[in-house]
Amino acid sequence: MASSRDTPDEVKIRATPREPVTDPTLGVEVPRPAAVKAKHRLVTIGDSLTQGFMSAAVHRTDLSWPAITAYELGLTAERFTFPTYEWPTGPGGLPLDLERLARSFEKRFGARLDFWEIVTAALWLRSYMDRIEDHWERGPGSKTPPGGPAFHNMAVYGWDLLDPQLLTSTRVAARLARPTSDDPLSQLVEHHQDRAAWPVLQRARKGNRGRSVLDAVADMSGPGQGIETLVVVLGSNNALGSVVSLEPAWTPEGYADLPAEKRLAARAGCNLWRPSAFDADWALLEAKLRGIDAQHTIVATVPSVTIAPIARGTFRKVSPKSRYFPYYTRPWISDDDFDPGRDPHITEDEARAIDSAIDAFNETLVASVAAARRDGLDWYLFDMGSLLDRLATRRYIDSPWARPEWWTPYELPRALRLLDPVPNTRFFRSGPGGRTDGGLFSLDGVHPTTAAYGILAQEVIRVMELAGVEFADRNGHPRSGPVMVDFERLLRADTLLSDPPAAVSDTLSLIGWLDDQLDLVNRFLPFVHSPL
User: Fold this and answer.
1) Eight-class DSSP state of 144
2) Structural domain of residue 295, as residue ranges?
3) Which of 180, 264, 319, 428 has its CA 20 to 30 A from that of 213?
4) Bridge partners for 43 per DSSP
5) How many CA atoms lie within 13 A of 46 on its CB side?
């Protein structure tokens, strides 16, 4: 009997990576009508990459790429809104801000954890986690969020293509009403993804009626309002859980034939969509996006999740010309210690199958944008997937023979090139002397740092400029192009790069210890859907 981990026959395994799309218009011209002043200049729909999630928590939503883009547009806080979850002085993020934990740990135990402190450190960690859990399950974080106008950033971490279409505040509130436990041995914020979605969906309500994010955005484009630019960044969570868990679980056969509501139940336990399943979910979303009257719509492709350093390639590449390593495991498991019979991992063939599925996802997205443009809609493609390919350190930068003919390195902004070491896509490492490696991914090995969110903002801005969007300075004066993101400002806000923690003498060692204590990756980065 086939396992859910077995690659479905419909997945076409590809020997070469998908070529990037360099023209956001896909070569399809669309007559551009005269600009009409819109009440909402920027609206975004997405998942953790758009919400501003980093280091295993959502807390600095003011440093998300949409917020950075809005800043460069010259928008005030009233003209680009987003949910806030807690102040930097709060209990510790939702579900767990690893950077704050590392700094608190360092303050308590210093840069190195001695052998005789291990038991004390474990007890301290439980107490730290208990404060976070109490805040969100029984304290201020458990209160019903206030209503009000829909946010401009409507992203929620963990969401795949179905969630912004089908989830409502009513459905989420019902799940949160289920009893929670206060298990002293399992200090995890229960239903934390729903708690992150609740403020967003409360703002999507209309009167006493719960609605989806798509419903609320459609209203924002209606008469008397209007959306200038809508950006949609979804699809990563239709594959990301496969490398976070290191246990690929494909959607079941026949998923695409189910009604949308039944797909919510059918996806339980799944972390990797068959191409047919992705196509079916995207078709529903595309139809609703076409009903939103935005002047410009930008759709992002899905990045290759096997590049994320949470899954480290072991040993040498399978061949000098290959993109792949024989196994992928946790970054804190060294080659000398790795045992494929004991340690979690995916194989080269599984990594290739995951990437091949994502290539199929992206072909669907490219075709969707091209069709919309042929129908006269001013849609654009942001090829976020190829952007990560051009930044991939171990896959391409360190392996010249593995580079496709089309590959060129992405030129980092000057402010980042001046850092020592220059930021890259390896797992973040730092010690008493400062950062020693990484810098583009935060401490969870999945999500960007603030500076890397700036790179995403910069690329979205380039597409917006192509669409004719006008940018202004903080005084409201028009800016001439090309508009450049203020990376000096972002570096001052990026505490991970400007003042890296040194706990346990090496942040990688700390994350490994936390994973041992808490099953950190599987429980705090849960990209596998639970039953409804």
Assistant:
1) P
2) 40-524
3) 180
4) 230
5) 24
pLDDT at site 518: 76
The pLDDT of residue 186 is 59
Asked if residue 279 is part of any domain, the answer here is yes
| Structural contact between residues 350 and 7, judged by C-beta atoms closer than 8 angstroms | yes
Output 254-258 pairs: Cβ under 8 A, ≥24 positions apart: 255/280, 256/280
pTM: 0.95
Number of domains in the chain: 1
Which one, of 518, 496, 510, 501, lies nearest residue 60 by Cα?
A: 496
C-alpha 178: how far from chain center: 27
Q: Cα Rg for the chain, rounded, in angstroms? A: 22
Is 78 among the domain residues? yes
55 occurs within a structural domain:
yes
* Spans of the chain below 50 pLDDT: 1, 185, 504, 531
Residue 159 backbone class (left: φ over 0; alpha: ψ -120 to 50; beta: rest): beta
How confident is the model at residue 105, as a pLDDT? 87
Q: Strands (DSSP E) along 22-169, which ranges?
A: 40-46
Beta bridge partners of 441: 448
From residue 159, give the alpha-carbon distance in Å to each of 164, 247, 513. 7, 19, 28
Q: Report whether 74 contacts 89 (CB < 8 A).
A: no
153 CB neighbour count, 10 Å cutoff: 26
Cis status, amide bond into 421, omega within 30 of 0: yes
Structure tokens at 500: 């890296």
Backbone angles phi, psi at 157, to 5 degrees: -65, 145
Domain presence at residue 20: no
392/309 Cα distance (integer angstroms) = 10
| Residue bearing tokens 């993020």 | 93
Whether the link from the prior residue into 309 is cis, omega within 30° of 0, is no
